[in-house]
Amino acid sequence: MERESVLASYGIPIIPSSPMRPTNGRRLTAATDSSSRTSKRYSVTALYSMAAEQDVEVEDELAKAQKRLRELKSRISAQSKKNFVLERDVRYLDSRIALLIANRIALDEKQEVESHLVDELEAQEGSFPDDRKMQQYGNLFFLLQTEPRHIANLCRLVSLTEIDTLLQTVMFTLYGNQYESREEHLLLTMFQSVLSAQFETTLDFGSLLRANTPVSRMMTTYTRRGPGQSYLKSVLSERINSLIEHKDLNLEINPLKVYEQMIKQIEEDTGGLPPDLPRSVTPDVAAANEDVQEIIAPRLKMLMEIANSFLTTIIESLEEIPYGIRWICKQIRSLTKRRYPDATEFAMCSLIGGFFFLRFLNPAIVTPQAYMLIDGIPGKHPRRTLTLIAKMLQNLANKPSYAKEEYMRMLNPFVETNKQRISRFLNELCEVGDFYESLEMDQYMALSKKDLVLHITLNEIYNTHALLLQHQDALATSERSHLRMLLDEVGPAPPQVPRKENRTIELPLFSRWEMPIQDLATALMSDNSVTQFDILYMETKSIFVQLIRSIPRMAERRPIELQYIAETAATTKDATLVRKGIKVKEMLRELEEAQIIDRSDGYRLMTEEVAQELTHLGNLREKVYEEIKSLEAVYKTICDHNNYLRSQLESYKAYLQNVRLQTNTETGVGPGSSVVITNGKGPAQPKIKVLGPYKFTHAHLEKEGIIVETNIPENRRQNIYFNITSPIPGTFIIALHFKGREAAILEMDLKLDDLLEKQQDNVVSLDLEYVQLDVSKILQLLNKTFAKRRA
Helices 775-782 and 752-760 sit at what angle, rounded to 10 degrees? Predict the structure, then answer.
């Protein structure tokens, strides 16, 4: 197999190999070796090291931490995919349930919605494709993964209604290992192709990357992957939480709204309005009012201070911004320069800022609860402040010549003060290296793996297959195209299977046109002019590093004595270490005979390289611990978001169950109505079991965040408890009790669909006179307490 043909098939640029260690038998000098190893290009030495690490039999703290980190990254990737699917379902059900609540639509509509509520966890049925089909799909998806241009073209061809399903497969399955360099770099290569085509086909520079297109949807989805979420959590969470603590801080600057709030306050304070203050005025009149101006002036100053603190935090986080997001910014700048050579620095920064702020940062600032950056939903005033901050950052990035809202002009001093600062930041954002050389090695390594697999659902396979067939004439114009040949071979796409049968399978990936590499050392020697002594030197160094990591006392011993380490390993009670010790002593002898190392100087060259590797591993251990700590917080956030999404689905299920039970009664009661149970004579009605009362203390509900505000004096709260009863499906009675008193202090009758309607309308809290309850969390409590007992 020719190396050039392998790389060309992946669309990777061919870069001549750097010269390796001299092979004429003379001993290397440190200077000669140093120059060959400090090449900017990855060397074959690094490639061999990658291969050697696959089979390391070390169980030190670093190895354990690395294993834990890999498992954590894998869980984040899998959980991110589940959340993406759930979010899509919730978006659909939000609209359908809203109609059910608003219009009390009949059972046929209810059944359509109910069909979307099959829990993924129930999907255990379904059948695998046969062995022949599995191999054909393995060939097809290997080609799609390793030649990203096909997916890039497909993403541009599909409609907006099809893009979400395709993005699920691309972002979370095909390139779903979000922390693995090969898949991440292949995904970015796909983005480069997509962006390049977008720049070529967009006629109006002003609309570039701004419209709601499949490409913009792709870019937004990319930012929702694990690394992007990790960055948002670490950089924005503390800043936003400190802001929303000030629930009563009103920084509204829209003169019309300020005027209305002022009028309302005057009426509450005096019971009326003076004749010179009409209740309704135009925006211009409100803006000209001196009292309004006096209210707004300090707010403007405070808003600019807060926005400046956000901006400083973001700028100082440059090194924390995920590589992929910075690389996309770099492509936007590069493509702008090539496609629009006359574009100004301002125009380029505007495009970069449009992606970084509009698609990535601002959505998290405006709706931090959706990104699980905060607990609950921010109050009315903080929510408005966050929206204004996001607008200010967007205006700073875009530097528009006009403001969509006239009152935003008052914040122009913020833009003027920071415009040089933001331009410098957006340019520095693009200063990252390319990855093509490391991708070349990763692809080479992929051919040496025997377990390259995708975890993919049947419907993801069949949907991608169907889209490829639908657009194959545009994707594969030549009959001899590899993609066309594989599509012809696999045949027509099977229909989508029911959700319960949509099983996840393990699809082995194979190349039809490249032979797998069976022996990496032999392949390196044949394809890269690497000699057997090069391989021997690299393997010897690798074994010494493994031995020092495996024998704790060796790690502390200085100076490093290779002969002593080999002898110590060969005389331990561990059979594996004995084997390695004996082997590495023989390897030292061979290298000395070949005059590549010299015993007389204590094998100085290899000793220095082993020491450097150990220093690197020590630093790496600390970095791994830091990354684990950061990603554990991200994983918790993603799981919390998953629980929130599932609680929404549970609310919908409970509502539908309520509809079904009420509709099935013989009284003709329709959805949303109450069932009246009487003891008098009349039509027989089905007996409905009364559930409860279930008791909850004030302290418990406060701890769970269900009580968000309370007027009950602190010294009396320990005597307060709540009884919750469900006399009929979908109806709940919450009774507030004081210990020692038989009668309830207060009772409230709640309907499930009323609560859902409040949630739909973004009503944050429910007023029970003495306490305020969080709408979303009381819904979760009711579902958890009653839904399964009704089933």
Answer: 140
- DSSP per-residue codes, 530-587: --HHHHHHHHHHHHHHHHHHHSHHHHH-SS--HHHHHHHHHTSS-HHHHHHHHHHHHH
Q: Phi, psi at residue 709, to the nearest 5°?
A: -145, 145
Amino acid residing at 166: L
The 10 Å CB-count burial string (b at 16+, else e) for 190-221 is bbbbbbbbbbeebeeeeebbbeebbbbbbbbb
Number of domains in the chain: 3
- Shared domain for 282 and 167, answered yes or no, is no
CA 712, CA 461: separation in Å to the nearest integer? 57
Place of tokens 């061979």: 590
Phi, psi of 392, deg, nearest 5? -65, -45
- Tens digits of per-residue pLDDT, 611-641? 877 776 666 667 777 778 877 877 887 888 7
Contacts of 566 (CB under 8 A, 6+ apart): 544, 547, 581, 584, 585, 588
The pTM of the whole model exceeds 0.70? no
Q: Could you give the dihedral angle defined by the CA atoms of residues 400, 405, 408 and 412, in that order, rounded to the nearest 10 degrees?
A: 30
* Residue of 753, 773, 756, 649 whose CA lies nearest to 702: 773
Backbone angles phi, psi at 124, to 5 degrees: -115, -5
Q: Is 707 helix (H, G, I), strand (E, B) or coil?
A: strand
pLDDT of 683? 45
Tokens, residue 560: 């490093």
CA triplet 210, 215, 218: central angle to 5 degrees? 110
Q: Is residue 710 part of a domain?
A: yes
Q: At which residue do the structure tokens 């190392």 appear?
A: 597
Alpha-carbon distance of 777 to 648, in angstroms, equals 10
Give residue 357's Cα distance to chain centre: 16
Q: What is the CATH number of the domain that holds 259?
A: 1.10.506.10
Residue 722 domain-assigned (yes or no): yes
Task: Measure the CA–CA gap between 73 and 703, rounded to whole angstroms.
Answer: 31
Domain that holds residue 268: 229-317+364-429
Give the CA distances from residue 197 to residues 80, 155, 350, 488, in Å, rounded to whole numbers and listed in that order. 28, 11, 20, 27
Instruction: Provide the 8-state DSSP code for 171.
Output: I
**Do 156 and 302 reside in the same domain of the chain?**
no
The pLDDT value recorded for residue 39 is 37
Which residues make Cβ contacts (< 8 Å) with residue 466, sequence separation at least 6? 493
Q: Which 3 state secondary structure label does DSSP give 108?
A: helix
For residue 556, what pLDDT band results from cuts at 50, 70 and 90?
low
User: How far apart (Å, rounded) are the C-alpha atoms in residues 411 and 253?
Assistant: 10
Q: Minimum mean pLDDT among 67-76, 403-412, 585-594, 680-689: which range?
A: 680-689
